[in-house]
Design goal:
The structure is a single chain. This protein is mainly β. The chain contains 4 helices and 28 strands. A hairpin with a 5-residue loop joins strand 10 and strand 11. The protein starts with a helix and ends in a 9-residue tail after the last strand.
Length: 409
């Protein structure tokens, strides 16, 4: 072989073996909060702390016409679609319930109740990356695993929770629940997944004597490696043992202590919350919060059987934030004493979460189309920020630094 050709080959070998490829730097991300505007079908993106200023907006239903055609051509799907509008939607379609961003901040994954699905949307373009139709006819609350790789979604009409790969939308597992699965929470570093089923909340059979019509309500705990049940908690038995047989056993929003030893939960029709000790498997305390004298005592007028709906806990675990939905206020409660602070007026607050810096509770005011931050330390309102029509779920997420919204969509 000529020496010149040998030299060329040697140069090529050195170029491919002696100089390892340099990995591209990871994209810088900004922490934000996503606010799901349920009736709009949009999500407002705001700063996660400080002034909570608006950054951008995402259209969660860019494929709206395609989905509507599918529904209109299927009588059964249309019946459920209209049922959602007249029932939980209070006369409106429910286009966005819950949402989480992917770990790389490139997409937001959202559940869309009226479309009975979960979608991933590209945050650069606004286009759909993938779509997962849930079993049955309505999707609901979600939860993301601590490592950000999996998202769980309640399929409320099929009594099923689907667990999906957040990047691909592929189902990695599922499990059965009680009637109308609702809230989902990962615990023990993602080893377990808790689901709370709320039963039938869309009928007018709200008299306590008709509680049996509400269905099978229970807490289902599964192992996330096998999706097999490890525990089923019937709060009816625990409430009876606590001498509160008068309370509903429909577990609504919940909050765990940082060490996950105690669970605080709201139930249908009740203006307060309860404390459950995980190790001893019993209810240990109850907190009754003030009633708004202007709130009707006709339980059929309360939205989806909620009196209070939404709670979160400070990162230190010393304060609870409670959304008094039908009583039009939010309040900070000291966890040790269960003493509440001053009531913060709010228009039908529907959710409560923790700000990115952990200093504030952020509530969605679905009655006034804004989110409001309340200081955990003082219990006072910090700021309110206008958002879209009927905000509900609020979640901390990430977007690329400098992002102000999709380029299209």
């Amino acid at each position: 072989m000529p020496r010149r050709l040998l030299g060329v080959l040697a140069t090529c070998v050195l170029a491919t073996t002696a100089a390892p490829a340099v990995a591209a730097p990871a994209e810088t991300l900004r922490e934000v909060m996503f606010v799901g505007n349920n009736w709009d079908g949009t999500a407002d993106v705001i700063a996660s702390s400080g002034d909570f200023a608006k950054i951008g907006r995402v259209n969660i239903i860019p494929d709206r016409q395609e989905r509507l055609w599918e529904i209109y051509l299927n009588p059964i799907k249309l019946a459920f679609f209209l049922g959602i509008r007249s029932g939980p939607g209070e006369g409106h379609d429910q286009f966005v319930d819950d949402m989480y961003t992917t770990p790389d901040g490139r997409a937001v994954v959202a559940s869309r109740p009226s479309f009975a699905d979960v979608v991933s949307l590209d945050l650069a373009t606004g286009r759909v990356n993938w779509r997962f139709p849930v079993s049955g006819f309505r999707s609901d609350h979600m939860a993301v695993s601590p490592d950000g790789r999996r998202v769980a979604v309640s399929a409320s009409t099929s009594n099923t929770v689907h667990v999906l790969d957040i990047q691909t939308g592929r189902e990695v597992g599922s499990f059965r629940t009680g009637d109308k699965p609702h809230e989902n929470v990962f615990t023990d570093g993602g080893r377990y997944l808790w689901n709370m089923s709320i039963g039938e909340v869309n009928t007018a059979l709200d008299d306590p004597a008709l509680d049996f019509t509400k269905g099978d309500r229970r807490v289902t705990v599964v192992d996330t490696a096998t999706f097999q049940q490890v525990k089923v908690i019937d709060m009816r038995q625990r409430l009876d043992a606590f001498s509160r047989a008068d309370l509903s056993d429909s577990v609504r929003p919940v909050a765990f202590t940082p060490d996950e030893s105690k669970l605080y939960f709201q139930v249908s029709f009740f203006h307060g919350f309860l404390e459950y000790d995980v190790a001893t498997d019993r209810i240990t305390r109850l907190k009754e919060l003030p009633k708004n004298p202007g709130t009707s005592e006709d339980r059929t007028t309360w939205v989806n059987d909620s009196r209070h709906h939404g709670m979160s806990m400070s990162p230190a675990g010393d304060k609870l934030c409670v959304a008094g939905t039908m009583d039009d206020y939010a309040v900070i409660v000291d966890r040790a004493t269960l003493r509440e602070g001053a009531l913060v007026p709010a228009a039908k607050p529907y959710w409560a979460t923790v700000s990115g810096d952990g200093r504030s509770c952020v509530i969605s005011e679905s009655g006034s189309d804004q989110v409001t931050a309340i200081d955990f330390a003082t219990g006072r309102k910090v700021v309110s920020v206008p958002v879209g029509d009927h905000p509900q779920r609020v979640r901390v997420g990430h977007v690329p630094a400098g992002w102000t919204g999709p380029s299209t969509g």
